[in-house]
Write a structure and sequence with these properties.
With 305 residues, this protein is an alpha/beta fold. It has 2 domains: 3-145, 2-Layer Sandwich (Ribosomal Protein S5, domain 2); 176-299, Aldolase class I (TIM Barrel). It has helices spanning 29-39, 73-96, 123-142, 148-154, 185-194, 207-213, 217-222, 240-249, 263-276, 290-299; strands at 3-10, 17-25, 48-49, 51-53, 56-57, 62-66, 108-114, 176-180, 201-205, 229-236, 254-258, 279-283. The strands form 3 sheets. The protein has a 5-stranded mixed sheet with strand order 1-2-7-6-3, with helices on both faces. Strands 8-9-10-11-12 form a 5-stranded parallel sheet. Strands 4-5 form a two-stranded antiparallel sheet. A hairpin with a 6-residue loop joins strand 1 and strand 2 (17-25). Helix 2 (73-96) crosses helix 3 (123-142) and helix 8 (240-249) packs parallel to helix 9 (263-276). It is elongated and about 80 Å long. The relative contact order is 0.09. It is an enzyme of class 4 (lyase). Its EC number is 4.2.1.147. It catalyses: 5,6,7,8-tetrahydromethanopterin + formaldehyde = 5,10-methylenetetrahydromethanopterin + H2O. One of its GO terms (biological process) is 'de novo' pyrimidine nucleobase biosynthetic process. It comes from Archaeoglobus fulgidus.
Length: 305
């Protein structure tokens, strides 16, 4: 094992503990990073060794790196007090409990990046939260958690608590697509408020609405339906890359390119959509031979989603 990575979030309020952690062998990348952390000091982010008491470091040795810039002695006391002690106790207990093999304790090093909010004040919470988060991060690292299957299962079901929303993807069909072509924003918002929340409803922002209010009308709609999947129907005919970028900048989940556009425009639009992480659609309305057109796009080396 060269090194493994663990992460854990424990607690609540200003004292919430978030630990990012690396554990690995001294003669590998983890050992190099450990030495660099101690040798290269940074103002406000001074690394410190985890100690169980003065003059007694842990085995394996652990270096603590504050994530948030320490600006005064009150903040420093929390790092060099309850946080330092908590990390040390967690490392020692991890060895005692067999999470870290005792026979490897002299071979490994631990790098723990910890979060102490500037408004954190309760030393008891800081200690217990960081103890729990550090030990959980070590356990996850040693168990190589999560596995790829867990990530693939959770990626479209989970949302980040500090973001308050998730990036909706089309992963569980069928879907009901609602076309919003009314060029009246107030009426559109009223309609959206009456539509029930569902992972199986997606919204097409119609061309008339886009022409009147611009692509960033989506930001207004997200005030009502923040997690919805929005398709921006630009029916792009030229400057495909620019309009795809505009759709992404407006937080669209997908952009529509006209099948009547030149192949170069369609290709640039699809490639820009791929770069920005959104889906691309080609509208074949009024295209004389859609299958032939699709084959031409394919020959150019791309395909719409």
């Amino acid at each position: 094992m060269e090194f493994r990575i663990g992460e854990a979030l424990v607690g609540e309020g200003f004292e919430v503990a978030h630990v990012d952690l690396i554990i690995g062998t001294k003669d590998g990348p983890a050992g190099i990073a450990f030495a660099n952390a101690l040798a290269n000091l940074s103002a406000g982010h001074t690394p410190l060794l985890a100690v169980l008491r003065p003059n007694l470091i842990t085995k394996p040795p652990a270096v603590i790196i504050p994530k948030v810039t320490v600006k005064n002695m009150e903040q420093a006391e929390l790092i060099f007090g309850p946080a330092q002690a908590a990390v040390a106790k967690a490392v020692a207990d991890a060895v005692e409990e067999g999470i870290i093999p005792k026979e490897k304790a002299d071979e490994y090093v631990v790098i723990a990046s910890i979060f102490i909010h500037p408004n954190a004040a309760n030393r008891h919470k800081i200690y217990y939260y960081n103890y729990g988060a550090t030990k959980l991060a070590i356990r996850r690292a040693m168990q190589n958690f999560p596995d790829v299957d867990t990530v693939m299962y959770e990626k479209d079901r989970s949302f980040h608590p500090f973001v308050g929303r998730k990036l909706t993807k089309l992963w569980d069909p069928p879907y009901l697509q609602i076309a919003i072509d009314i060029p009246d924003l107030n009426e559109v918002l009223r309609v959206l408020e009456q539509i029930p929340e569902s992972d199986h409803i997606i919204f097409e922002i119609g061309t008339p609405l886009v022409k009147k209010y611009g692509s960033e009308v989506i930001l207004k709609l997200r005030e009502v339906k923040p997690d919805a999947f929005y398709i921006l129907d630009l029916k792009t005919l030229d400057v495909g890359n620019l309009e795809a970028r505009m759709a992404a900048d407006a937080t669209a989940n997908a952009v529509v390119i006209s099948g009547l556009a030149p192949i170069s425009t369609i290709v640039k639009g699809i490639r820009e959509a791929e770069k920005t992480g959104i889906l691309s659609y080609v509208d074949m309305m009024n295209v004389e031979d859609p299958l032939k057109r699709l084959e031409e796009i394919k020959k150019a080396g791309v395909l719409p989603n």
